[in-house]
Design goal:
13 helices; 316 residues; two-stranded antiparallel sheet; mainly alpha
């Protein structure tokens, strides 16, 4: 990871869009792979909410240690308002987006819930245009239309769809929270580096989960069990703790830090669009690893999502 994005007070921040996009796309790939890793971990009987709790706590420890080792001063909190903003970022942007996503997938197909959640970039663009009075180029709206249409093809929205009203509500709340996360991160990354911001975010997320699900009731025996990797890797077995460690490091610490660091170089709207690569990667990995089917229509949808991402990158 690079050092703090903000230098001395008299040094303007240098934006490097290509570098920012590279970080966001790398994060989307890691998030996409993480979906299959988490699915295998959950097959052990570990609940999604407990996996999320372990994910937040492990990421908190890792990021806090990294910040203390390389830039202890980056963890400095200026005042109570600064602390309050960090708390909102952690609870709302980090913890609750996971909570409402898991609630949604209990009632909806994962692909449908993910499609609804990825309305977030559109919400960010609307916020920027109406509340922020920013000029949002027509190319961004076209890119959003491409990306959302591609996602609809990937999840085959028309194929036997039966939407649960409460599940849709949960997914829409997740979309709003995801949009808030992008906007909050874009604002906070101006004042602190990505590692310390995510360290604080995961700290408050961990506090939230600790209150919601006390650690003394955590099913520790589950993480010591061994589980098959399923699909094409069914003959291979790993302990659940190794999969959880992957989810923490390569599925949380690194990609979340990359996303926030990318926001120092690229706007929240474009970051949200580029992040739509995640469901494309998740679908391909699930097909290659877990033997989940991948139709020609889904491949076409993936190509359209990628076209939307590339179009967004051309908008200056």
């Amino acid at each position: 990871m690079e050092g703090p994005l903000v230098g001395a007070a008299d040094e303007p921040r240098v934006r490097r869009p290509v570098f920012g996009y590279a970080m966001v796309l790398a994060a989307a790939i890691l998030f996409g792979i993480n979906g299959s890793v988490a699915k295998v971990a959950l097959s052990s009987g570990l609940s999604p909410l407990r996996l999320s709790e372990a994910r937040c706590a492990g990421a908190c420890v890792g990021l806090m240690l990294a910040a203390l080792a390389y830039a202890p001063s980056s963890l400095h909190v200026r005042d109570r308002r600064d602390l309050a903003r960090l708390a909102v970022f952690g609870v709302v942007g980090v913890a609750l987006v996971q909570l409402f996503y898991f609630l949604a997938i209990q009632r909806l197909a994962i692909g449908i819930a993910l499609l609804i959640q990825y309305l977030a970039p559109l919400l960010v663009a609307i916020w920027a245009r109406t509340v922020g009075h920013a000029h949002v180029r027509r190319r961004i709206w076209v890119a959003l239309a491409f990306s959302l249409s591609g996602l609809a093809l990937m999840v085959e929205l028309w194929n036997g769809l039966a939407l649960d009203g409460l599940g849709v509500t949960y997914a829409l709340i997740a979309a709003v929270i995801f949009a808030a996360y992008l906007l909050l991160a874009e604002r906070e990354v101006v004042h602190r580096d990505s590692v310390s911001l995510m360290a604080w975010g995961f700290l408050f997320a961990t506090i939230f989960w600790t209150v919601a699900q006390p650690w003394w009731s955590f099913p520790a025996a589950r993480v010591g069990e061994t589980v098959s990797l399923h699909g094409h890797l069914a003959s291979w077995h790993l302990p659940v703790w190794a999969l959880v460690l992957w989810v923490i490091v390569l599925g949380s610490i690194i990609p979340f830090s990359l996303i926030v660091a990318g926001l120092g170089h690229v706007s929240a709207t474009r970051v949200g669009i580029a992040a739509m690569l995640e469901p494309v990667v998740a679908t391909v990995v699930a097909w290659a690893w877990l033997r989940q089917s991948l139709s020609s229509v889904q491949l076409g949808g993936a190509a359209i999502v990628l076209a939307g991402v590339l179009l967004a990158q051309t908008a200056r």
